[in-house]
Amino acid sequence: MKRDVLSIPEIRFGTDGWRGIIAEEFTFNNVKACAQGIVSYIVDQGVDLRPIVVGYDTRFGSHEFARAVAQVVLGNGVPVLLADRPCPTPVISSNIVDRGAVAGIIITASHNPAQWNGVKFRTSYGCSPSLTTLFQIEGQIQRLRTMADVHLVDWEQIPNTNLLTNFDPTASYLPRVTGLVNLRSINECGLKVAVDVMHGAGAGYLSKLISGSKSQVTELRADTNPSFPGMRNPEPIAGNLAGLSSYVVKNGFDLGLALDGDADRLGVLDSEGRYLTTLQVFALLTYYFLEVRGLRGAIVKSVTAGDMPRKLGELFGVEVLETGVGFKYIAPLMLQHDALIGGEESGGYAFGRHIPERDGILSGLFILDLIVQTGKGIRQLLDTVYQLIGPHYYSRLDLPFAEDRRDEIMSKVSLMRANGIGGDTVKDSDEIDGQRFFLKAGGWVIVRFSGTEPLVRIYAEAKSEWRVHELLTSARDVVGLL
Asked: pLDDT tens, 443-476?
């Protein structure tokens, strides 16, 4: 087998794995190098060489890249459980735990635009690894110099290894989530739910879980299309959900749900097609567990996930822990503190009685159960939460930037401390992840660079929608990006 020089000798893991543009950074050689680094890390830990689960999403080439990962894992003498179909990241995470695997590798770029693909690594707990683990994996990859350092098995020889098993990922996942929520009540309540799966790997899951009953689930954009037409990227945010909004209103649906490309994120629309912010959804899920189900446990949130979880935690007497953006920070804290729920601004929510990893499908089921158990619509429920902790509004701007402007942008952002934002004085600031500014009259603004795309993200939360818009506009003007 020909062994070429690696095209990119250095691979870095961002907020959630390594991602690159297909055929540029994201090549078969680089994917194999990444897989070799992961396997070398696992072998060096001295653990029993249980299988590694390998999965993939509906993106261009994902299946073939997953086969390349399997070649490397098998080439290192480690057994592989290879999904026999595209499936969501949380489904692979669930299978890692249920099948006693040592780890998982998923080919997915989650919500990134169509030209991207990526590699996610999951631990034996089914969750994102810690920063320490990621640094060690990166170190293993950096030691590779040519493809001769990557151990491979030719695909044609794999049937002779006796180490490869293909499996149906739904066989483990569907029973697991069925045991976590009262599906009978959801099925019998007569809800009409529209689900936009955005041409991603989440197609078929919610419709299968809620089928043949009084409730009705209709899926939109359920066909596989790796170009993700009609959207910048398969992310369940308001700008990508105009079609779902119109469909909900036109056909009299009670709710709209949306899943991102690998179904680890959730978007929610009310019966009037209005989008709920991810922070509102996080607050509703927190309220559901603390008030409706009467459970107690720590809450883990990223810095960008707003103040509502903290205020609900104070109200119900539970600990709230705050950390940087990404489940590589959130998951370890969830495990350490046996947390009830963890969440971040991007629409990813995890549950301690499941796996400490985002699951958009299960999040959607919990939202439906919240409606069923309370007998209230989603806006009524949000009003109930606001009655407890006051109104909170939020939005975000994603601004593309040229890499050579990074230092200039950072310098401009630092001026906000002295000059204020939106006509208000900055009373405090921190740099837990990006730069966060707390304003004297209330509310906050965060400016940070995306860990997966060339974007500057500006986040703001305040007591009214117009004030959020004002803060975002002011911060954008300082940064100098359109």
From this structure: 999 999 987 778 999 999 999 999 999 999 999 9
CATH H superfamily, domain 18-170: Alpha-D-Glucose-1,6-Bisphosphate, subunit A, domain 3 (3.40.120.10)
243 vs 265: CA distance, rounded Å = 18
pLDDT digits (tens, 9 = 90+) for 98-124: 999 999 999 999 999 999 999 999 999
Task: For residues 405-431, give the mean pLDDT.
Answer: 93
**8 confidence band (pLDDT: 50, 70, 90):** very low
Question: Dihedral through CA 289, CA 290, CA 295, CA 300, nearest 10?
Answer: 80
pTM of the predicted protein model = 0.93
Nearest to 359 by CA among 348, 371, 345: 348
Query: Which DSSP string corresponds to 9-23?
Result: S----BTTBEEEEBT
Instruction: Evaluate whether the domain defined by 179-389 bears CATH number 1.20.1300.10.
Output: no
Integer CA distances (angstroms), 210 to 104, 191, 197, 244, in order: 28, 10, 15, 19
Identify the bridge partners of residue 342 per DSSP, sorted by sequence position.
300, 350
Dihedral sign, Cα of residue 237, residue 243, residue 249, residue 255: negative
Task: Tell me if 59 sits within 8 A of 112, measured CB to CB.
Answer: no
Q: Where are the alpha helices (DSSP H) in 17-130?
A: 28-44, 62-75, 89-98
Give the tokens for residue 248.
């909900």
Q: What is the DSSP letter of 113?
A: -
Looking at domain 393-479, does it have CATH number 3.30.565.10?
Answer: no
